[in-house]
Amino acid sequence: MSNLPTLIADLALILLCAGVMTLLFKKLKQPLVLGYVVAGFLASPHMPFTPSVMDTANIKTWADIGVIFLLFALGLEFSFKKIVKVGGAAVIAACTVIFCMILLGTVVGMSFGWQRMDCIFLGGMIAMSSTTIIYKAFDDLGIRKKQFTGLVLSILILEDILAIVLMVMLSTMAVSNNFEGTEMLESIGKLLFFLILWFVVGIYLIPEFLKRCRKLMSEETLLIVSLALCFGMVVIAANTGFSAAFGAFIMGSILAETIEAESIDRLVKPVKDLFGAIFFVSVGMMVDPAMIGEYALPIFVITLAVILGQAFFGTFGVVLAGKPLKTAMQCGFSLTQIGEFAFIIASLGVSLHVTSNFLYPIVVAVSVITTFLTPYMIRLAEPASDYVDRHLPKSWRRFLNRYTSGSQTVNQESLWKKLLFAMARIVVVYSIVSISVIALSFRFVVPFFREQLSQFWGSLLSAAFIILLIAPFLRAIMVKKNHSIEFMTLWNDHRTNRAPLVATIILRVVVAVLFVMFTIAGLFKASIGLVIGIAILAVVLMVGSRRLKKQSILIERKFFQNLRSRDMRAVYMGEKKPEYAGRLLSRDLHLADFEIPGESLWAGKTLLDLNLGNKYGVHVASILRGKRRINIPGGSVRLFPMDKIQVIGTDQQLSLFGEEMSRGSSFDTDVFERSEMTLKQFMIDADSAFLGKTLRESGIRDKFHCLIAGVERGEEILMAPDVNAPFEEGDVLWVVGEKEDVYRLVGQKN
């Protein structure tokens, strides 16, 4: 033992405690996260009755790696497209809950006279509900299919991304120790800039890289490459002033859009589970029982603040989003706990040395208590909503009914709003990419050219190089959406729309001109008039260039193709319904999946034979056969057993179709008895109908559906008789077939 490194001995103790506790907590049907925390408490120096970890500094390093893996795995489950799909209700509810809970936590901390940074970090810790614990509670209670759970999970998705933003803001505040509005706006602006840049560049480059290397990718190489990308982004994020966890989350969310996402998630899971366990054990190691006893009152008050605050503000946020009171209370009561992000934010405060020692154990204690209470709070939601509904004044009830019903109908986007939002998105994204290209070029390319050539020629070549690089993006800023449906509709709709539309074009041209001017002015000392003239000329050439137009379209098409590749694969494999399926609902039509049973009477028949359109009024849109997809199949296409077919029709038509398809697929004892096979032997005698005939002439296979397994001729046994040799008297034929056919064959006489 003396020769064993301390780190290995400590790791052995941690994993031993974690293993025992996870088994115990699994038996008690409690979240494993709490088991890890208790294991850490047992392995900590604060526990005198058990062996203790000797080198906490090394364990802290492992715990930091655990946070990176946790956030990387969270990013793999997260998708930027999910934010678009969660809807306004989840956005309003999540923002309301987080803002109000941060304020509540800050007020509670200030009421105990704690330092300002402790109060702010406490607010951040209690603002985030635990995704893992809520998922598990919904599964344990068997309510994952209920309507309100979808909204809760959407809120949690947004809380996860907002938690990352909150961590970046808290880090900025802790480092600068400055609470000025300009400082905060600057940090948010920097965050958004790098978030968009990394996401856009990542989605453009990484899926393409993985696609080209797909033939070389075994499970081992895919794991190594994905972890290399993760830690590469961690280093980049750290060097640009962000936390390592933020970089891991960004790379996870980029890889989440690739076809390999599920494989990476599966491969990374064991590594994440190991290091994640070490992180949560390290959380438990920081819990001092004496400190918990000393701060029993704050623990009680904060626990009460989490339960009542999340329940009230969650309910208020969902009602504000236009949902009924019962749904709102079910959502609010489900959010009444804190978990993983509370620990991560707490460890962030400790690592930055800006929070007091007592805060960490308090938050862990609050997390343990609120986690145990979560299932009871979810069960309490329905009776509580019934009680509130019964005792709510009639005027309030009428107001809530009017508000929720009114918010459902006001959902029509104006053309102007849609057009301006699209233009703003294009300008922001391509401007960020252009700024990055210019900044990197000034940092690396310009000095290189100036070293190789003279100052003037180096600057001239650099200017041409930079302008050529950003030209596709500047052209997109100026031209995109100028011929869109929204633009043309507004242009043709009324003359008063034309001036504002022209103004949008002019403003975007000015943005492009400014980029070119900045590049030229940074490289040459020239008059402002000359710089403007050159910039305008360059912009005119960009707009008129057909090659640049084609390049710009290809860049954008490649980006969206990479962004949608995972969804496209899921649709192709039948794991997800195509986009058009959602639009059929307005016409009382929808898309449903059916699988052709192995014993179906339809198997082997063509669509023309089945005539499904005329008989049932349905249309077969696609057939999925293994990894092959047949879209809009023709009449000559046959259906095979286990084919998955996607059918369009109304509820009534699809119901009738499903019944007819399965008819004849059920077990039929008569068919079973008739289909029994038997082996029989009979002799060719003088009266036999087959005497003197060859096997081919006898029609034994074609007419009687039987097969000759062998022929005995004297002492000779012919296993494969000659089809052209005639049967002789005394031949013994061994015949295989269905009973009825065999007896019919044997009874044949001249």
UniProtKB/TrEMBL annotation:
**What is the first-listed, main subcellular location in coarse terms?**
membrane
Question: Which Gene3D superfamilies has this protein been placed in?
Answer: 1.20.1530.20, Regulator of K+ conductance, C-terminal domain
One GO cellular component this record assigns the protein to is: membrane
Identify the residues that the record assigns to the RCK C-terminal domain, covering every copy.
Answer: 579-663, 667-750
Question: Which Gene Ontology MF annotations are present?
Answer: antiporter activity; monoatomic cation transmembrane transporter activity
Q: Keywords in alphabetical order, please.
A: Ion transport, Membrane, Potassium, Potassium transport, Transmembrane, Transmembrane helix, Transport
Membrane topology label = Multi-pass membrane protein
Q: Which residues cross the membrane?
A: 6-25, 32-49, 61-78, 90-114, 120-138, 150-171, 191-210, 222-238, 299-321, 333-352, 358-378, 419-444, 456-478, 499-520, 526-544
Localization (cell):
Membrane
Question: Which InterPro entries did the record assign?
Answer: Cation/H_exchanger_TM (IPR006153), Na+/solute_symporter_sf (IPR038770), RCK_C (IPR006037), RCK_C_sf (IPR036721)
What is the protein's name according to its record? Cation:proton antiporter
Originating species:
Jilunia laotingensis
Its taxonomic path starts at: Bacteria, Pseudomonadati, Bacteroidota, Bacteroidia, Bacteroidales
